[in-house]
Amino acid sequence: KVSCGSARNRGQASLGSFQMPQAAVAANTAANPAEVLYAVANHVATITLNCPERMNTISHTMLGEITELMLKADNDPAVRVIVLTGTGRAFCAGLDLTSATKGEGGVANASSNPSNLDLKATPPTVMFNLEKPLIAALNGSAAGYGLDMALIADIRLMARGAKLSAAFVKRGILPESGGTWLLPKLLGWSKAAELIFTGRTLDAEEALRLGLVSELVDAAELPARARALAEEIAGNAPLAVQASKRMMRMGLNETFHDHVHHVFLQLLPLLRSADAREGMLAFLEKRTADFKGK
Q1: Gap between the Cα atoms of 106 and 214, Å rounded
Q2: Inter-residue contact 193 to 166 (CB < 8 Å)
Q3: For the whole prediction, is pTM greater than 0.70?
Q4: Handedness of CA 134, 246, 64, 29 (dihedral sign)
Q5: What is the helix, strand, coil percentage profile of the chain, to 5?
Q6: What tens digit of pLDDT does each residue of 208-229 get?
Q7: d(Cα 121, Cα 117) in Å, to the nearest integer?
Q8: Closest CA to 53 of 27, 38, 33
Q9: Which backbone phi and psi does 82 adopt, to 5 degrees?
């Protein structure tokens, strides 16, 4: 059984001044694959949960790595859109409780102290605060913590055979990472209450019907479809996209009159940007705009 390694198993390994040969690095990486993968291409950062043998359940180490990589992508001027996905048959089946019970670095263990947990640095909170658009490409089922992470994304694409499981109350807990805030806003109070209180599992067709996902895609076509959507978004003016997302988030908790005032304040600097001038010229010249994020 292959065990997952660390996301830091990328590049050249070293011990003090000793540099491990590249062949040894490759062998070590093959034996201990990274738990979280990171790649950037065409202004799109893809973060991939990479523990398929345990259905991408989130270990304690992965919590920090996901947060680190999300912030890395959000702070990289070359990145305009972030895609979160998984390998294997699951997107994410929740937290890694098996390792916790064995004392092997799961999320909850005897040495952990809930009073010292910094919720501001957990993946759901960091993901919610991202300036850049986040697409969840659900290659497989999302359950528990994995469901909450998917719901935080701005856009969700889902493989046809995948499912969404809100079985928190069946395990004696509650949606601990945003579900009780997100689901009523996404579904309305009655439907959210039904889903949370029953702990039901939704198939892909029902998830689409309820509006929890934007599109169903054959599993084999999901990576290409997610990339195509991300690159379509990345082709627009990044400052305008980020400002639009910022205003959508702010609008969840403010009145209409406060909101339009804040929108106007966001619009003023955009009108002075080089991208706004480029967008106007491209329209007049009937060509594709070349935005620089400036």
Answers
A1: 33
A2: no
A3: yes
A4: positive
A5: 50, 15, 35
A6: 999 999 999 999 999 999 999 9
A7: 9
A8: 33
A9: -120, 135
